[in-house]
Every structure is written in structure tokens, then in C-alpha cells.
Amino acid sequence: MAVKARITVYPRPEILDPQGKAITGALGRLGFGQVTDVRAGKSFEIELSKKGRNVEKVLAQMCEQLLANTLIEDYSVELLDGGAKK
Amino acid sequence: MAVKARITVYPRPEILDPQGKAITGALGRLGFGQVTDVRAGKSFEIELSKKGRNVEKVLAQMCEQLLANTLIEDYSVELLDGGAKK
Question: Which residues span the domain enclosing A51?
Fold first, then answer.
């Protein structure tokens, strides 16, 4: 059974996020003064050909090996067809 | 009242996504042969100082004006403290 997942990767909270800061400033200049903070990250929608029992573990391995730099980034894994898990 | 939202921006389905294709190939070479497709997008976590009645409309305006290139990208807006809406 095919399964779809979303992986979100953000800079760790203690890491500076210059892209987010730039967007915060740009939104302010565009008139969106109510914006106090922006974090800029990446999102990946992944389709797998079958749903194994360990699909969340497999997705976490993809993050560790390729999608996230865990020194400076946190990731979260979310199964899109029901069920959500870190 | 402060409010937090997540904006996700993906290339439109009819647009080529070379970054996603490259990741699909790289995951395959790393042994994740069950991956059939990857779409690579952006994610923004936005904090607003107050929750107006039109917060979703305001967030959509931010996407139209700055965060997404609507010629080639789709966006979705999600309020993080309860409630979700396109």
C-alpha cells in the first residue's frame, strides 16, 4: 500500500536563522507589522511504494542520512493519510 | 493574543521539481528504494502579535506578496494553535 509522508526541517531554536529574520523584516516593510518572528525551513512530501511496519523509523533514517543536518536542524515526520508522529 | 501559523509552499504539480527528483534519486542510492516520488518545498513558521478576525486572509496576502511565487508555486496556510484552513 502506498503511503505519503511530510517531513519538515527547521533550524534548531538556538541556531540563528538569517533567512527567517530577513523575511520578518521584509513582511514588516510590506505593512505586516504584526509579524514578530519567522522561522524558515524546508518541507518534503515523500511517497513510498509500500507501508511497512517501521515506516516512521525509515523516514527518520532518511532525515538523518540526507534530508536534515542534525547538527543545526530539527526534523519532524508526519504521515499524511491518518496518523502523525515525531 | 499571539498566534502561530505554518505556511507551506510547494511547486505546482504541473511544474518540474528538479530538487525533488534529485532527492528521489539520492534516497534510492542510499538504499531507500521504496521511495517513488519526492516534492521539495518550503515551510515558514510565522508568529503574529495578535489574532485578528482575518488572520488567514492576512497570511494569504503574505504568501501572494512575498512568500510564494504563485505562477509556479502553491501555498497552504495552517493555524498551529487549533484550527486549520487552506
Answer: 3-79
